[in-house]
Write a structure and sequence with these properties.
single chain, alpha/beta, Rossmann fold, seven-stranded mixed beta sheet, 18 helices
C-alpha cells in the first residue's frame, strides 16, 4: 500500500462550525469515489450521486484531492452534485414496457440487465490520479459492481465499499419479490463485493447486520451515517423572497425534499396538512410518485406546491422557505436507512418532525433538535406540526439546535475521517 502523510489531528468540535476551524486529521493525498449507476436512467434528484458527491467533496477537504467516477466518466464533486440535481431529471410522461409490465417481469429484466453489465464498467488505473498518492478507493454498493474494488487492487490501496442498504434485502422489505432467484442474486450479485472490500461502511446498524449475514467480518464493518456538506449550507439568505415567488407568504409551510418514491410515504404528509388551517405543503423534487401525490392533495383539498428538481446549490433556499420539514416512515417495513434529506434539513436550521424509528430515534433528541412522533400516527404528526405552527420562537429554537448538531456531528468530513481511521495499515 502506498504511504500517506498526516499533517494534523484533532477531534471534531461541538460548536457549529468548530470542527472545520480547529486542527483535524488531514492526509496529503487523494481519494477516488466510484458510483456505477447512471443518473440519466432515474427520475428526480439522484440520491446516490448526490451522496457520492458529498463524500467526494469531503474527501477533497480531508484527504487533499478527490474524483467521482461513473460510467459517464470522471468528474469533480461539484459536477457530480450538478448532475445529480439537474432539473432535467423529471418524471417522463409516456407509456413504456417499464411502466405497464408486471412488477415481477420488470424486476427480472432489470436484474438481467445489471448482470449483463457486470463487467462493462472498468476504470483506467492511469486516470487523472496516476501521479498522485491515492489513499483509498471508495465504491457505492450496487448489484454485480466491483469496478472500484478492482481499481483499488490495481493501485495497491485499501478499498471501501459503502453500503446504504443491501439490495435484495431492502427490495424485499419494499415489496419487490424475486421468487426463485433472490438468494442466488445475493450470493453472486452482492456477497463477492462485500467480502472483498477492506472496509464495509454501512449506513445504519440494521444494514450492518445484513452485511454480517452475507459474510462480512466484524473487523471490517463501520457505521457511516448519511452526512451533509456544511459548505453548501453556510450561505444564508432571506427566505421571504422565495416564499413570495412560490405564493407562500402568510402560509405555514410544511416541507419535504427528495425523490418521489412510494417508500417515502408522502400520503402521510398530505393527510396531516389536511388537518391544519392556513398551511401549504411544499414538495421539492420529482419522481414516479409525484402525480399520485399531487392528485391526492387535490382530492383532499390540500394546498400544494411542487417545484420539481432544483439544483442542489439552490436547495438551501428552498429548505429555509419551510416552517417545518418532514421525514416519514412507510408502514409495515423496518426503517433501515439514513436519510440524506434529514441531514440537509438540520444544516438548513429547519425544525424537523420525524418518526421515532431506527437511526432517527438514536441521533435526534425529541424537543431539543427535532420533534419525534410515533410512526404512522397522523394525530401525533398533526399535533407536532400545530405546536410549531403556533410558536415561532419554538420553531427558531429547534431549528438552531438542529443546525448546531448538524455542524457538530453530521458532516461528510467526519465520515471520511472515520473511514481513514478504519483503513488497514
Amino acid at each position: 500500500m502506498r504511504g500517506h502523510g498526516i499533517v494534523g489531528r484533532g477531534a471534531p468540535g461541538t460548536r457549529p462550525g468548530a470542527g472545520r476551524k480547529r486542527a483535524t486529521l488531514r492526509v496529503v493525498g487523494a481519494a477516488i469515489f466510484v458510483v456505477a449507476g447512471s443518473p440519466t436512467e432515474q427520475q428526480g434528484p439522484v440520491a446516490s450521486l448526490l451522496s457520492t458527491a458529498g463524500w467526494a467533496g469531503a474527501g477533497a477537504r480531508v484527504v487533499g484531492q478527490s474524483w467521482v467516477v461513473t460510467p459517464a466518466g470522471v468528474m469533480s464533486p461539484a459536477e457530480a452534485r450538478r448532475r445529480g440535481s439537474d432539473p432535467g431529471l423529471h418524471s417522463p410522461d409516456r407509456t413504456s414496457l417499464r411502466r405497464v409490465a408486471p412488477g415481477l417481469l420488470k424486476t427480472a429484466v432489470k436484474d438481467l440487465r445489471q448482470w449483463r453489465r457486470r463487467g462493462r464498467f472498468r476504470i483506467d488505473p492511469g486516470g487523472p490520479w496516476a501521479e498522485t498518492d491515492v489513499v483509498f478507493v471508495w465504491q457505492r454498493h450496487e448489484l454485480f459492481q466491483r469496478a472500484g474494488l478492482r481499481l483499488a487492487s490495481h493501485l495497491g490501496v485499501p478499498s471501501v465499499l459503502f453500503v446504504p442498504a443491501t439490495v435484495v434485502w431492502e427490495a424485499e422489505h419494499w415489496g419487490i419479490k424475486r421468487p426463485g432467484w433472490e438468494r442466488w442474486l445475493e450470493a453472486h450479485g452482492e456477497a463477492p463485493a462485500l467480502r472483498a472490500a477492506d472496509v464495509v461502511a454501512c449506513g445504519t446498524p440494521e444494514v450492518a447486520e445484513q452485511a454480517r449475514r452475507l459474510g462480512v467480518s466484524e473487523a471490517r464493518l463501520l457505521i457511516t451515517s448519511t452526512g451533509v456538506d456544511l459548505e453548501v449550507f453556510d450561505q444564508w439568505s432571506d427566505p421571504e423572497r422565495l416564499r413570495g415567488q412560490l405564493g407562500l407568504r402568510d402560509r405555514f409551510v410544511v416541507g419535504w425534499s427528495g425523490s418521489f418514491r412510494r417508500f417515502h410515504a408522502l400520503e402521510q404528509a398530505v393527510e396531516a396538512v389536511a388537518h391544519l388551517d392556513g398551511a401549504t405543503l411544499l414538495l421539492v423534487g420529482d419522481g414516479p410518485e409525484r402525480a399520485r401525490i399531487e392528485q391526492l392533495a387535490r382530492n383532499r383539498q390540500v394546498p400544494i406546491v411542487c417545484t420539481g428538481t432544483v439544483p442542489q446549490s439552490e436547495l438551501p433556499a428552498y429548505l429555509r422557505a419551510m416552517d417545518a420539514a418532514l421525514v416519514l416512515a412507510p408502514e409495515g417495513v423496518p426503517f433501515h436507512y439514513s436519510p440524506l434529506k434529514l441531514a440537509e434539513y438540520l444544516a438548513a436550521a429547519v425544525p424537523v418532525v420525524a418518526p421515532a424509528v431506527g437511526q432517527l430515534a438514536g441521533r435526534l433528541t425529541d424537543g431539543v433538535d427535532a420533534l419525534l412522533v410515533p410512526p404512522h400516527d397522523t394525530p401525533a404528526l398533526v399535533a407536532a406540526l400545530q405546536r410549531l405552527q403556533r410558536d415561532a420562537d419554538e420553531r427558531a429554537r429547534i431549528g438552531r439546535a438542529g443546525h448546531q448538531v448538524a455542524s457538530a456531528t453530521w458532516s461528510w468530513d467526519q465520515q471520511v475521517r472515520r473511514v481513514l481511521a478504519a483503513l488497514p495499515r
